[in-house]
Structure formats: C-alpha cells, structure tokens
Design goal:
It is a single chain. The longest helix has 22 residues, at about 5-25. The protein has helices spanning about 5-25, 35-45, 60-70, 85-95, 110-125, 145-155, and strands at about 75-80, 95-100, 130-135, 160. The protein contains six helices and four strands. The chain is elongated. With about 170 residues, the protein is of the alpha/beta class. Helix content is about 45%, strand content about 15%.
C-alpha cells in the first residue's frame, strides 16, 4: 500500500529539481558546494540561529552530538523506545549504554515521567553515570521540551533534539 506518492511530488517539482541537480553536475562541487552553504543558511534563518551544520545523515548527526558531549563507556544516554535504531546506536558506538524510556501514549514521543523514573533507577543502581537525553520528534510533533529541559537541568544532563521528523514543528 502506497501512503505517499513520491513520484507525484517529484513531477510537481521536476523542473526545479532537475535544474538544481544540473547546476551541481556542471560545477562539480559535490561535497560542501554552494548548495550546501545555501541550505545551511536557510535552515539557520528558519530556526533563528547563527549557524546550522548539515550532515550526510541522521546517524552522523547523532554521532557528532555524542562526540561533542564526550559520551564514553560508563555513561547512560536515555533514548525513547519508539525510534529509529540510530538513536541507541549513536551512544553505543562510543561505548555508552542506551537506557530506553517508554513513550507517551498520546504523542509517541519520549515520556518525561518515565524518563525521570529511569534516571532515578540508573542513579540508584550506581553502575552508570547519567550523561544525556536524546529526544526524537515524531510525525511532525516535537517532544515535550519544556518538561524535558526541567528534568535535564535537575539532573545536570545534556538534552539532544533529534528533529528529523519534526523540523519546524510547534
């Protein structure tokens, strides 16, 4: 069963898409070309920040976040249960332990109540150091960031937003 007709979307935008692809083929700057700079500028303007950095894919983006945060073995990174496997793969790649948090039944996003319970469990067990939370926006709906930010501040955790499915959502 086809849910999204990508061919129809392409045909609607075909002339514009083909022109932009032809431009790239003509100048030959396939990596970090002017189109990338243009996209990053437009993304930064859209969300009201000074800079935006694009990546090859979401897994790379999450791994970069883990690198910046200094995630390493012995760290706990809290991840939603309802997500793409890269959410847990990224911290595990650096030796950290993904700790799965149940989803809110109304939004399918990470549940702040269960998140705090999982943090407390990790602290009580004393085997891992809570380090970060990865929240994943789903179906155009952002996670409950006001509540997640409170929890992150309370336990001195970093909060990573994976907005791949919710960029620009409110």
């Amino acid at each position: 069963m086809q849910f999204i007709d990508l061919q129809a979307q392409y045909l609607h935008l075909k002339e514009r898409i083909d022109k932009r692809i032809q431009n790239v083929l003509e100048h030959g700057k396939y990596i970090m070309g002017p189109e990338v700079e243009e996209l990053e500028g437009k993304l930064a303007d859209y969300v009201g920040v000074k800079h935006a950095i694009t990546c090859a894919n979401g897994t790379d983006a999450l791994q970069l976040c883990m690198m910046v945060l200094g995630v390493r073995p012995g760290d706990a990174v809290f991840c939603p249960t309802f997500t793409f496997f890269a959410t847990a793969e990224a911290p595990a790649f650096f030796g950290a332990t993904p700790v799965f948090v149940d989803s809110d039944p109304d939004t399918f996003n990470i549940c702040p109540v269960d998140l705090e319970n999982r943090i407390l469990t990790v602290l009580e067990e004393g085997q891992l150091k809570p380090k970060a939370i990865i929240a994943v926006d789903l179906f155009g709906l952002p996670a409950n960031y006001p509540e997640l930010e409170k929890i992150a501040a309370k336990y001195d955790l970093k909060l990573v937003e994976d907005a791949a499915q919710g960029f620009g959502g409110q």
